[in-house]
Amino acid sequence: MTDTKAAQLLHLRGQSLAKGDPIAPPITLASMYHLPGTPGGVAAYGRSDQPTWEATEHLLSHLEDAPALLFPSGMAAISAALFATLKAGDRLLVPSDGYYNVRKLADQFLGPLGVKVVERPTTGFAEGGFEGFAVVFIETPSNPGLDLVDLAATCAAVRGAGGLTVVDNTTMTPLGQRPLDLGADMVVASDTKAPGGHSDNLTGHVATRDAALAERVRSWRTVAGGIPGPFEAWLLHRSLETLHLRFAAMCTSAETLAPRLAAHPAVQLARYPGLPGDPSHNLARAQMATNGFLIGLTLKDEASAERFIETCPFLRPATSFGGVHSSAERRARWGDAVAPGFVRLSIGTEPVEPLWDALKQALDGL
Ligand SMILES: *Cc1c(COP(=O)(O)O)cnc(C)c1O
Q: Residue 225 and residue 221: Cα distance in Å, rounded?
């Protein structure tokens, strides 16, 4: 199914071209449009209408099988999803060990507006039930711990309790996991990561099959005004055309490297859903198409972790992940509740054996 989608994606635009049109979409720079007389049915103004966004949203919608809206970052997409669904007095559930800016957004901005924010660890997310929550925000696999939430069971339970689910699908992309098919009301994602994939562009998107929710998110984007630039949209369009190749290579390499890393004496613990003994393994097989390209490594201490990252020539010491260049960082430096020697490793598109040689040599040197 994923292969068919990837093949179709490359020809979506081509099927509606007229003779002489460029195969690649043009970058349209426009704040004003020719709009005589009564507005309606055509582009009106650059904050609400943008042909280059539409080209990119066409690809994202195809991948999600749902209307998709483009945002200038993953956090802009997440903000849109939450501000479009919550009001004063509502209760919001967020993971206590997911991407930390979501908790910051909730605590610093939604809380003071009267939203009651509750945090729970990803492991045991369903404990305590979902009664009384207007919105349940799910991140699976969680970043950086790579723990999983059972999407089908959780989305059904939240719906049964009258709430909405928003699933952050950043770590897997629509090629690796399909939360809307598993019952989620909304998907949010940072396309800055693997979808962009070249460490040069920030974008994000929201997708939902609920027309009223989609309209509300669109309205939030138009009135709040946090909109993507046409060039950034175009760059994502270009990147999405190779996502299937990059994602497959990254996941296949991670699958090869994870057991080797786990067996290295300098590694105290390796977390990867593809490892048979991993706590996430069975659920990953049930709800994910691949095991992803992120690997969590616990090394002895902070110094070992920093040395590993610094001495490996094929690792960029950088925050963020999903790029063609393998990268790594010690997440405790941002205050994530992980061991000081915990390294989040993002496997890139380097051919796997030279990459393994470099990783092994850096670990051997610790
Ligand atoms: C990076 C990330 C985000 C935020 O995305 P930006 O594009 O940096 O705003 C949100 N969720 C997860 C899981 C992420 O990894």
A: 6
Domain at 84, CATH number:
3.40.640.10
Establish whether residue 204 lines the binding site of ligand 1, counting it when its CB lies within 6 angstroms of any ligand atom: yes
| Number of domain units in the chain | 2
Where in the sequence is the domain holding 287, given as residue range(s)?
A: 243-364
Q: Are residues 129 and 195 in the same domain?
A: yes
Q: Over the stretch 277-329, which tens digit does the pLDDT of each residue have?
A: 999 999 999 999 999 999 999 999 999 999 999 999 999 999 999 999 999 99
* pLDDT tens-digit readout, 54-107: 999 999 999 999 999 999 999 999 999 999 999 999 999 999 999 999 999 999
128 and 231 assigned to the same domain? yes
Pairing of strands 186-190, 204-207: antiparallel
Q: Which of 179, 175, 117 is nearest to 148 (CA)?
A: 179
Q: Could you tell me the distance, in angstroms and rounded to a whole number, from the CA of residue 343 to the centre of ligand 1?
A: 18
Rounded CA gap, 268 and 261, in Å? Answer: 10
Whether residue 98 sits in one domain with residue 201 = yes
Q: Say if residue 255 is in the same domain as residue 348.
A: yes
11: CA distance to ligand 1 center in Å? 29
349 Cβ below 6 A of ligand 1: no
- Chain-wide mean pLDDT for the chain? 97
CATH code, 309:
3.90.1150.10
Ligand 1 contact via 74 beta carbon (within 6 Å): yes
Return d(Cα 207, Cα 194) in angstroms, integer.
Answer: 17
